[in-house]
């Protein structure tokens, strides 16, 4: 991708936005008096603000870029992450779980675990979560710095440091409130920055019906765009359910309906939205119980509609790529700088007669799949009259057939945005990364200060002490994130392993919360060992299974290859996504069963009185009678669920 | 918290909308954006949004604070 040159107006928009987020941090500083103001916002924020922040905190970390990539790769089935995954989980959180989180006066999710079970689960959860947030923000910062480098030609270090400096300033000054307020600003920025791009894309193609007919072309021959080796029914990219119900071989995700509904919908999504402190923290900062319960419900409304903004661009891109008149192609994977020299030497030494042999050599040099016809054409042209290196580079890059899916959304921004709108769209992109980073940092602050520092290292200090520790943690947290960003940039394999391990830890977590909140008999020992057992199950599952076509190793199934066996057919999944959904399902079931069995075998350590406000059956029902009928969480939740169901049916 | 978030949102988007409208007025329709003067039109959309936010914040500021 050639770097984009920004005009003055683009920089002005970028600066205006940066100035405002920093200004919000400074404006909030004078309201912060205690550690709780800094770390939990003193529970003072209205519901619509926490609701939009709830949604925006999750919007960061590659969501915008990643969902468009999936939209291109899998089509509208990507919306299952929203319409099967997120929405029901958010409604469950609001109606059933929020009363315990908020009502228990816990300041964090691990602190709730401490009240409900004991210090062991709290310790396990807070340490794994703290490490995870630092790595998550590091990964997203690394991605952002690379993107700024690719897109604007900014130096990697400069991009990394300047964006972290902005986040540091506003989180340090205004704490969680500042992060939440700027997340709202970021939410509007993202919506208003990307909406015109999507609109122009849809208009360019000629509307939904033409998009659908182009997607049918894609589905019947996805190999033409190097999307997939198989062929599918015409509706594989434009229907959410029909291809999934037809079975794993009939949809590009390679999944079946059970993996979607149970693995993705129930285990992974409920696990994320209902227990991840990053998002739950936003609801816990609300000013009262009603506002706390409304937070996820308010967030669910834009979340439900977000596929238009984040998935549709990917679908538009693949459709455009099938229309020769539009002169658009999916962005190819960039050739590494070090690979150009040997590849170009091979092109120069080749003649049209030796083109076939040269092609194999050049492909090896580049390390990517290339288009043979294009490479032969380059060799031919070069042997007639030698091309300058610059032109050769461009031509060779164009011959790459592997797609750089994460670049899809940017290729559309570049295609449709004139100076001005370009600044707006890029600011929106920057905003999404910053909101993700700030979300992680504020969650890390609270967990470290309250759940690790206050709980285990230095209990019973003055509030002022924790306030200062909270601020120091912000600096340390961002410093650690920067280290992780460099680490991620240099050791992408190590990063994959770390993310894999977090996947193992997170997969069973929802079972622990479900039993903790709805079964008074669940004991501390049961929860702790169940969680460990669930994590071990996911690690074992990963060690034994693999997606067909992947090499045993980091992708899974290494136990078979270590013992010298081939992976049996029963342990192979049609896709990595299917493997992941099934892994989560097994981990959940293992954790659930183990927790139940061990709880029944051990004595309860907490009495009914101690569990009041923490367990469903021992807590007086909340009375919603004073609220307008339509605004009661259960009623509102039902309406949203129906709306979500309708969306599923429309795009069936 | 003492700060109504609608103020900064409103001011920022109004400011950005003015930048876009000026840019649109100077450069006219763009070939990239299918021959539409997207800066001008989207600037107007942002202006409406920004002004609505400011209007909401100003109206809330006048009312006596609601009881908790």
Structural class of chain B: mainly alpha
Q: Biggest interface pair, residues each?
A: A-B, 38 and 30 residues
The beta-strand count of chain A equals 2
Read across the widest sheet of chain A, the strand sequence of neighbours is: 1-2
Question: Percent of residues of chain A in helical segments?
Answer: over 70%
CATH superfamily of the largest domain in chain A, called what? Sodium/glucose cotransporter
Provide structural commentary.
Chain A is mostly helical and 652 residues long. Chain A has helices at 8-29, 35-40, 47-59, 63-74, 80-103, 109-116, 119-152, 156-205, 208-220, 242-245, 257-275, 277-284, 289-305, 307-310, 312-321, 337-349, 355-366, 372-384, 389-398, 408-416, 421-457, 463-490, 492-506, 509-518, 524-544, 558-562, 576-601, 633-650, and strands at residues 546-547, 572-573. Chain A folds into 3 domains: 8-323 and 410-490, Up-down Bundle (Sodium/glucose cotransporter), CATH 1.20.1730.10; 337-402, no CATH class; 493-620, no CATH class. In chain A, helix 26 links the parallel strand 1 and strand 2. Chain A is globular, with a radius of gyration of 26 Å. By secondary structure, chain B is mainly α. Chain B has one domain (6-60). Chain B has 2 helices and no strands. Chain B has helices at residues 6-27, 38-62. In chain B, helix 1 (6-27) packs antiparallel against helix 2. Chain B is elongated, with a radius of gyration of 16 Å. At the A-B interface, helix 1 and helix 8 of A face helix 1 and helix 2 of B.
Give the secondary structure arrangement, pairings included.
The complex is a heterodimer of chains A (652) and B (68).
Chain A: H1 8-29, H2 35-40, H3 47-59, H4 63-74, H5 80-103, H6 109-116, H7 119-152, H8 156-205, H9 208-220, H10 242-245, H11 257-275, H12 277-284, H13 289-305, H14 307-310, H15 312-321, H16 337-349, H17 355-366, H18 372-384, H19 389-398, H20 408-416, H21 421-457, H22 463-490, H23 492-506, H24 509-518, H25 524-544, E1 546-547, H26 558-562, E2 572-573, H27 576-601, H28 633-650
Helix pairs in contact in A: 1-8, 1-21, 3-8, 3-12, 3-13, 3-21, 4-15, 5-11, 5-13, 5-28, 6-7, 7-8, 7-21, 7-22, 7-23, 8-15, 8-21, 8-22, 9-15, 11-24, 11-27, 12-21, 13-28, 16-17, 21-22, 22-23, 23-25, 24-25, 24-27, 25-27
Chain B: H1 6-27, H2 38-62
């Amino acid at each position: 991708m050639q770097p984009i040159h920004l005009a003055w107006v683009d920089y002005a928009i970028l600066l205006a936005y940066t100035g405002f987020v920093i200004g919000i941090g400074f404006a909030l500083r004078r309201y912060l008096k205690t550690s709780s103001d800094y770390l939990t916002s003193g529970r003072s924020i209205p519901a619509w603000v926490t609701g939009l922040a709830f949604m925006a905190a999750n919007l960061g970390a590659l969501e915008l870029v990643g969902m468009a990539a999936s939209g291109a790769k899998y089509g509208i089935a990507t919306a299952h992450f929203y319409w099967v995954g997120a929405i029901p989980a958010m409604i469950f959180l609001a109606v059933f779980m929020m009363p315990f989180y908020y009502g228990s006066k816990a300041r964090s999710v691990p602190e709730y675990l401490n009240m409900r079970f004991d210090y062991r689960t709290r310790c396990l959860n807070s340490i794994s979560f703290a490490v995870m947030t630092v790595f998550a923000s590091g990964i997203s910062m690394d991605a952002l710095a690379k993107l700024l480098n690719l897109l604007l030609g900014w130096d990697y270090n400069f991009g990394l440091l300047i964006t972290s400096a902005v986040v540091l300033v506003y989180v340090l000054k205004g704490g969680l409130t500042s992060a939440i307020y700027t997340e709202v600003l970021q939410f509007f920025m993202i919506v208003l920055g990307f909406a015109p791009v999507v609109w122009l894309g849809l208009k360019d193609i000629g509307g939904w019906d033409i998009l659908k007919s182009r997607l049918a072309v894609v589905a019947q021959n996805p190999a033409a765009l190097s999307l997939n080796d198989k062929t599918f029914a015409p509706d594989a990219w434009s229907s959410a359910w029909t291809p999934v119900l037809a079975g794993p071989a009939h949809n590009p995700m390679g999944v079946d309906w059970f993996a979607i509904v149970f693995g993705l919908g129930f285990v992974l999504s409920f696990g994320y939205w209902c227990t991840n402190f990053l998002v739950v923290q936003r609801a816990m900062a609300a000013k009262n119980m009603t506002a706390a319960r409304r937070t996820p419900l308010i967030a669910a409304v834009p979340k439900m509609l977000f596929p238009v903004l984040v998935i549709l661009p990917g679908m538009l891109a693949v459709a455009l790529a099938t229309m020769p008149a539009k002169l658009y192609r999916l962005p190819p994977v960039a050739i590494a700088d070090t690979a150009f020299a040997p590849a170009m030497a091979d092109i120069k030494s080749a003649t049209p007669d030796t083109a076939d042999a040269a092609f194999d050599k050049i492909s090896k040099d580049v390390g990517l799949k290339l288009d043979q016809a294009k490479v032969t054409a380059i060799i031919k042209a070069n042997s007639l009259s030698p091309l300058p290196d610059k032109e050769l580079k461009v031509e060779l890059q164009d011959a790459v057939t592997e797609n750089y899916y994460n670049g899809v959304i940017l290729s559309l921004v570049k295609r449709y945005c004139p100076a001005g709108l370009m600044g707006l769209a890029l600011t929106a992109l920057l905003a999404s990364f910053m909101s993700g980073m700030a979300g992680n940092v504020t969650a890390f602050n609270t967990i470290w200060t309250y759940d690790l520092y206050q709980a285990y290292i230095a209990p019973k200090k003055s509030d002022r002490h924790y306030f200062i520790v909270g601020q120091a943690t912000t600096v340390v947290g961002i410093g650690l994130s920067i280290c992780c960003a460099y680490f991620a940039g240099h050791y992408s394999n190590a990063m994959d392993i770390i993310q894999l391990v977090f996947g193992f830890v997170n997969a069973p977590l929802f079972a622990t919360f479900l039993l903790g909140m709805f079964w008074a008999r669940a004991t501390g020992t049961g929860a702790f060992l169940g969680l460990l057992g669930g994590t071990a199950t996911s690690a074992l599952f990963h060690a034994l299974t693999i997606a067909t076509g992947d090499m045993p190793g980091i992708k899974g199934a290494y136990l078979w290859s270590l013992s010298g066996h081939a992976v049996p057919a029963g342990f192979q999944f049609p896709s990595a996504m299917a493997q992941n959904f099934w892994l989560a399902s097994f981990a959940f079931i293992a954790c659930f069963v183990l927790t139940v069995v061990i709880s029944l075998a051990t004595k309860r350590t907490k009495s009914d009185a101690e569990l009041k406000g923490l367990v469903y059956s021992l807590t007086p029902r909340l009375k919603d009678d004073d609220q307008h009928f339509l605004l009661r969480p259960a009623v509102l939740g039902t309406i949203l669920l129906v709306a979500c169901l309708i969306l599923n049916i429309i795009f069936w | 918290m003492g700060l109504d978030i609608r103020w900064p949102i409103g001011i920022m988007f109004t400011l950005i909308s003015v930048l876009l409208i000026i840019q649109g007025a100077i450069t006219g329709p763009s070939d990239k954006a299918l021959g539409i003067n997207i800066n001008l039109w989207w600037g107007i959309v942002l202006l409406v949004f920004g002004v609505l936010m400011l209007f909401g914040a100003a109206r809330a500021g006048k009312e006596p604070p609601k009881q908790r």
